[in-house]
Amino acid sequence: MSDFRLIYHSKANAELDETSMPALLHQARRSNRGRLLTGALVLHKGAITHLLEGPQVSVMAVMKKIKADPRHREVEVVLSANHVERVFPEDALDYVSLHPDYLKEKGGLPPRTAMSLEKLLALHPQKMLTYLMPVFKDLVRVARPDQDLSDRKVRTG
Ligand SMILES: Cc1cc2nc3c(=O)[nH]c(=O)nc-3n(C[C@H](O)[C@H](O)[C@H](O)COP(=O)(O)O)c2cc1C
């Protein structure tokens, strides 16, 4: 069966953060499983990037609810495509958490999470870079806290 893909970007409202996210994910995953939807969600400094894949009617039905959800605002569809092969065929809703405490504790991103980000980026590098670049910049900062990247000299000889 041919699948539909949609990616939107939005800004989380105050009540949507690392603490309230598990409840949202729990409910969303259950609902997505019932509709044969899969996808991934990145929350970073209040910015959400969410990919949904599955039957077009289901994606559109859920998207309508998501758009009207008061937990976030400025919902903007950044990519939609028909007849796709899913890039996230297994997860009802993979979650990429980039909370600084979490990253410090883990010493960076777990491999599976890093893979999710790379997959998202690969979908439309130009468009996705706009949304995911701040994420990657912060990851570099966490990975190399002692290095001041702004002061790198270029050797010319
Ligand atoms: C950022 C964000 C992402 C969401 N993702 C999903 C999702 O993938 N699937 C889903 O069913 N609901 C998702 N929701 C929740 C829906 O907006 C809505 O609350 C949910 O579908 C329950 O609606 P209902 O009680 O009318 O069935 C999301 C909400 C937000 C704020």
Kindly identify the CATH topology. Answer: Alpha-Beta Plaits
How many strands, what sense, and barrel or not for the largest sheet?
Answer: 5 strands, mixed
| Radius of gyration from CA coordinates | 17 Å
Compute the separation of the termini in Å. 58 Å
Average pLDDT metric: 88
Structure summary, number of beta strands:
5
Runs in which pLDDT lies below 50 for 5 or more consecutive residues are none
Count of all domains: 1
How many DSSP H or I helices?
Answer: 5
| SS class | alpha+beta
- Which band does the percent of strand residues land in? 25-35%
Strand line-up in the sheet with most strands: 4-1-3-2-5
Bound molecules: flavin mononucleotide
- The proportion of residues forming helix, as a percent range, comes to 40-55%
- Which CATH class? Alpha Beta
Describe the structure.
This protein has 157 residues and is an alpha+beta fold. The protein has a single domain (3-145), classed as Alpha-Beta Plaits. The protein has 5 helices and 5 strands, in the order βαββαββααα. It has helices at residues 21-34, 56-67, 100-106, 111-123, 125-143; strands at 3-12, 38-44, 47-54, 72-84, 94-97. The chain has a 5-stranded mixed sheet with strand order 4-1-3-2-5, with helices on both faces. Strand 2 (38-44) and strand 3 form a beta hairpin. Helix 4 packs antiparallel against helix 5. The longest helix is centred in the C-terminal third of the chain and has 19 residues, at 125-143. The radius of gyration is 17 Å and the shape is globular. The termini are far apart. Flavin mononucleotide (FMN) is lined by residues 24, 28, 31-32, 48, 50, 62, 65-66, 69, 71-72, 93.
